[in-house]
Each structure stands twice: as C-alpha cells, then as structure tokens.
Amino acid sequence: MTQSQDIALQVCPYCKSPKVLYSFCIEGNEIRRCNTCDLIYRDSPISKTRILSYYRKHYYQQWGQDQKGPYRDDIYLDILSHIEGLGKKGNLLDIGAGNGQFLALAQEHGWKIQGQEISSESCQVAMEKYGILLRNATLKEMKWEQNHYDLITMVNVLDHLPDPWWVLENAFQALKKRGLIYVRIPNGHLHSILYRIVDAIPIAFLKTKLSKLLVMHLYHLTPQFITSLLRAKGFRSVIINNSKSSKVSTYPSFNKLDNLCLLMLKKSFPAIVNMAYKISKGRVTLSPSIYIYAVKP
Hints:
By secondary structure, this protein is of the alpha/beta class.
C-alpha cells in the first residue's frame, strides 16, 4: 500500500477530512494529525462502551488519591480568580466534577453549584466530604437545562470525552447569554511535539521514562483546534493562556526518580513559559496544560 493510499483511508473523527498524517506512536498505537482542523487523535479509538466502563468502575481506584488531597486547590483557586476577575458569579455547572473539591471552593466563593460525575465512588466522596450531591450520570444521560448557567467548567475532562464537540454544543445551549465556558486541558501542541521527540529515541528504557511525563488521552487538543471548535459551536472572545500546575509532586505510577524529575520541571519551567507567552503576545503557550475561556454572545 502506498503512502497516498494509506492517507486516503484515514478520516478525521471531527471534520471528516481525509487529509490526515501519521504523527507518532504510543505503545504500538498510531497517532494521527488532521491537516484540516489540527485534531490529533488515536488511529484505533477505544470503544465508547469501554471508556464509560473505565470511568464508572476503575478511574477512582487509579486516581482517587489525587482527588482526595489538597494538591489541586491552587489550580481551582486560580480558576476562580480568573473568572471572578471578569465579574462573573451565579449558576455554575462543573462537568466531570470528581469528588466535588472545586465545587466546594466555588460554593465558598458564592456560586450556586451543580456538578456531573460518572464515577459513583467520586460522587459518594463529594457527598460525604462536602455535602454536595452530584449528578451521577453520563453527559448524554444528563438533562441539560437550557439558558440556565452563568459558567460551565471542564477541568482536565474534555480530551477524555469521545465526543468533545457534542459536549461543547450542549454547553453553549445550556449557558445564559454572556455566559462563560472555562476549559482546562493538556497542551496538545506541546505534548505532541515532545511525543515525537521521545518516539525517535532509540533507547527503550529512556523512552519509557520520558513517556511517563507526557499525556495522551483520547485526543490532543491543540490551541488551534480548540479555538476553531469553540467558534464553530457559537462561542466568541476565545482566550487561551498557560495554566498553573498542581502542587502534586508524586504520582502512583511514577517511581522516586520519575517524581523527582517532575518536581524539578514544575519548579524551573514556569519562568520560561511565562516569558515566551509575554514575548509572543499570547501566541506561544508552552505550559503542560492550558486554559481556555470563551463567551456565549
């Protein structure tokens, strides 16, 4: 099969363009990038049923400890600071709310809160620890209240979802006029560059170590892609910036050396990131995660 034939058989899951190319490989799974919309995606996607089963039954067991601690408080407070700096406060819906930690902080700040979470264990913790009743349902099972929310947040959620474009379309309808959407995601552009570099390393041991510092869920959502997607769904005034990192210095899947490298990066990298953003006047985002907010006109 020629390369041109191989390309013709591939179709972007979002825009359906055949203009997609091999980008890099993760554990034998080819990752492709659409030259039309800039979406980066797995060539062999995991079935929606399997994804839902994982988040319902297994996600909390693997990552629940990260939810329990105070590690994300600084991220959540930073989010509230940015949003409230725009004069926003009212009805808030948090999608993929985890154990309700962000919603608890938002409630303390005067927001009227609601949250959705597919993991029943996370919902139980939210009730026991914060007294918050989350909607334990998938986004397609959940009833979306129309023109109701002043703010919808998705923190480290959108790139996990099989149909992020469907979710943003429904979020647009659920927001009030002048309502705000806030999304935090891994920086797809940065992670894809680093993955390509790591993919070229011939030493398997080193490749494995470095790969642990990178993130690829169902998609890499690049700044170009997420900006175009939000505008296509009706949002305006799209702003993208570097996101603050969490304070967490250890991860369950990392050994001591991995966690030490992570800690050193978190301490040294922000200065470089902020300088690049300022010099480029907001065009260059180099942080591992980025945040995006946009307005429903």
